[in-house]
Design a protein that fits this description.
By secondary structure, the chain is an all-beta fold. The protein is 0% helix and 52% strand. The chain is built from no helices and eleven strands. Strands 2, 4, 5, 6, 9, 10 and 11 form a seven-stranded mixed β-sheet that branches. A four-stranded antiparallel β-sheet has the order 1-3-8-7, with no helix packed on it. It is globular, with a radius of gyration of 13 Å.
Length: 112
């Protein structure tokens, strides 16, 4: 059974930081590009960042460039997202994704 379990979300003030983790199992993690996707209630999903299998190529949506960093540990089958300088517009549920698999999300709320 494929499992992707995101954690690390929470309530943080604007300008704060969070580190998301996604523990995976049930598939060959090191063979898949991985992404963080976020979704605001009532809106469509947005791909925030992507990392390739060897961690030598990354993609970031423009709104998070310079603030978020995606990384992975293939030995631990885990994906990470370091999120700094958080803004209220970063508020969303964040999912760890590798097509066609979506994990359970973790909610991030940025508010004073």
């Amino acid at each position: 059974e494929v499992q992707l379990q995101a954690s690390g979300g929470g309530l943080v003030q604007p300008g704060g930081s969070l580190r998301l983790s996604c523990a995976t199992s049930g598939f060959s993690f090191g063979s898949y590009d991985m992404s963080w996707v976020r979704q605001v209630r009532g809106k469509g999903p947005e791909c925030v960042s992507t990392i390739n299998t060897d961690s030598d190529r990354t993609y970031y949506t423009d709104s998070v460039k310079g603030r978020f960093t995606i990384s992975r540990d293939n030995a631990k089958n885990t994906l990470y997202s370091q999120m700094n300088s958080l803004k209220p517009e970063d508020t969303a549920v964040y999912y760890c994704v590798t097509i066609p698999y979506w994990g359970q999300g973790t909610e991030v709320t940025v508010s004073s």
